[in-house]
Specification:
With 307 residues, the chain is mostly helical. It has helices at residues 6-25, 53-60, 69-73, 79-94, 99-110, 118-129, 136-161, 171-183, 185-193, 199-213, 217-224, 229-257, 264-281, 283-293.
Length: 307
Amino acid sequence: MPRFSGKSFCLGLLVGAVTAWAGLHQGVRFGNLPASAAKKPAVHLTQPIAGSASNAIKEFFPQGPLGEEAFWKALRQGGTTRATALREKASEILASSRPYSRRRWFAAMLEHYQGGDLEAIHEGMMAQEKLGGRFNKEYEQMMERAAEVEGAVVMEIVRKENSKEGSPVHEWHARCMADWSASDKAGAVAWWNALPDGNLRDHLAGSLIEGIATSSPSAAWEAALMFDPVQRANVAPELVKAFARDRGLEGSVEWMAGLGPEDSGTKSRALEELADHMHHIDHSRQAELIERFVSEPWAENCPAFRR
């Protein structure tokens, strides 16, 4: 039997190691290496990933996320150039299949809304609807933003949509009314006054006052005086909250207390709103409020007094 010396054994190990190293270095695969042994390319987290949300936003707004100031500065109000750009931009944004991102981009575009833009933006929306898209939320976004700038145009569309008997009224109609009255009290009040009696007029009454109250609670109350007592009572919660923001809680209490006997319903609803608010922030103040008005006839039906 042949015998191997220690030197031969060591030499064999050395030759085998060198051969294996050379094979690996040249890309020769020996057996099945585990996946962890494969060299992976370095990933740099600061590099944008293709198809990511940030890249998609930049495609629509190349000057920065949700900005694109240069694009808008180049478009003057009115004219075919602006209309074409708006129509194409709206269609491009609404082509996105991701609702959340799509609505963010659409809202960013609407921040640049100017009078006369509604038709072009709507045409871009209709172009995508013809391809099967449905944009109910985006439509409401568009109309509410337009109402802030040109409320008369939007509310005339609402009026025509509701001219047929049995036509439904929607919450976005009310929000548009509030947006318009907040920016143009006189125009909104005059338009509402011209409405015939019916569901639409009743549906928009509270929103008309709510919008005015955001800037002037006193003006909102003056506008509410054209309502009948029942309608005034219905808007009392919004009014008393507006007075509380403007004059503080004590000021809102004094406004309520100063209302005449013909507005007993308004006073009762306002007291209920104040009592509920104080119940959550200061029980002692609520108790003082109840004690002050507990003997008033108009306060008898206030739920806070029956707790």
